[in-house]
Amino acid sequence: MKETTIAGLAREGGVGVETVRYYQRRGLLGTPQRTGGVGLGGGIRRYGEDDIRRLRFIRTAQTAGFTLDEIGELLALDAGEDRHRAHTLARERIVALDEKIAELSAARASLLRLADACGSTSKGPCPIITAFDLE
Amino acid sequence: MKETTIAGLAREGGVGVETVRYYQRRGLLGTPQRTGGVGLGGGIRRYGEDDIRRLRFIRTAQTAGFTLDEIGELLALDAGEDRHRAHTLARERIVALDEKIAELSAARASLLRLADACGSTSKGPCPIITAFDLE
DNA sequence: ATAACATCCGTACCATGGTACGGAGTCAAG
DNA sequence: CTTGACTCCGTACCATGGTACGGATGTTAT
To answer: What pLDDT, in 10s, does the model give residues A76-123?
Structure first.
């Protein structure tokens, strides 16, 4: 049971320590039990595999376009019973992703036209605005 | 030569009036000559086809992932002579777009797994975090 | 046991891309 | 020639997703 501190967790998740703390404040990550805890506030918190998985999930869900609020809901659903809600969220996001991917592909085509138009060695300005006109 | 006011320009570009003003402040859109201009500050500004094209370009360039700062550079290049710089910017963005599209496609696959796993009528929690694990 | 380093916590600040507000000026219709 | 809608302008505020600071405490290596 590999345990680590907040710095190790952050490293595993590919984020900074401050970002982990930010997620804790947002309620996306828990604040585990502290070691010993002699003083008033207690000691240092220890994190395990579950925390690492959870943090990684947050990051990949972000790339899927979920906001942190939505990710909070997903994490709640992961523990809950509402399969229908989870299914709906996933479906909605797939539709949004399909739109986004189409949008980016169209933009890519425009950029290709632009690179082509401005790639020649000929002088003068290249019609950047025009290259996007055909979208 | 269809002319319009800021509200018409905003409508054509699919943005709000305040957004147009914001772009003007950022230097992305110019502030054209005013009508009559009797008082101290002058009258109402009039916008034409070029302004509409420029505004639409800003919006589509945004969907391509350019920041407003980069769009400002592109607009400067459109008038300038630096074809090489324009070509470089376009190429860089194509690479970034390819990465982003791949990322979104992977996320889409995860969501499909998730929708599948949580779509059945069976009870209990569905493994949301796990559905993303295989990325 | 003491130095060096990490953690904890609240609070403040940051960048990006807007959105809102309020007062003054302008324009067109009745 | 007034009313009502629109414009202009500065300035303030907002949401999102962090990032930085600084003092107190905790941990660890020598």
So the answer is: 999 888 888 899 999 999 999 999 999 999 999 999 999 888 887 667
- Give pTM, 2 decimals: 0.89
Q: Which among B56, B77, B133 has the least Cβ separation from residue A128?
A: B77
d(CA A82, CA A76): 10
Query: pLDDT for B81-133, tens place per residue?
Result: 888 889 989 999 999 999 999 999 999 999 999 998 888 766 777 889 999 88
Positions of strand D less than 7 angstroms from a protein CB: 6-11, 16-21, 25-27
**What is the CATH number that goes with domain A1-63?**
1.10.1660.10
DSSP letter, residue A34 = B
Residue A135 with chain B: CB contacts under 8 Å: 60
Q: Classify residue A81 by its DSSP letter.
A: S
Residue to substitute from A114, A121, A133, interface B, most B β-carbons within 10 A: A114
Residues B44, B5 contacting (CB under 8 angstroms): yes
| Per-domain boundaries in chain B | 1-64, 81-118+128-135
- The torsion angles phi and psi of B45, rounded to 5 degrees, stand at -80, 145
Instruction: For Cα atoms A127, A129, A130, give the angle at the middle one, nearest 5 degrees.
Output: 65
What does the alpha-carbon distance between residue A105 and residue A127 come to, in Å, rounded to a whole number? 20
Percentages helix, strand, coil for chain B, rounded to the nearest 5? 65, 5, 35
In the chain, the amino acid numbered B10 is: A
Say whether A122 and B81 touch across the interface (CB within 8 A): no
CB nearest A123 (choices: B53, B81, B108):
B81
| CATH match of B1-64 with 3.40.50.150 | no
Residue A16 and residue A1 in contact, taking contact as beta carbons nearer than 8 Å:
no
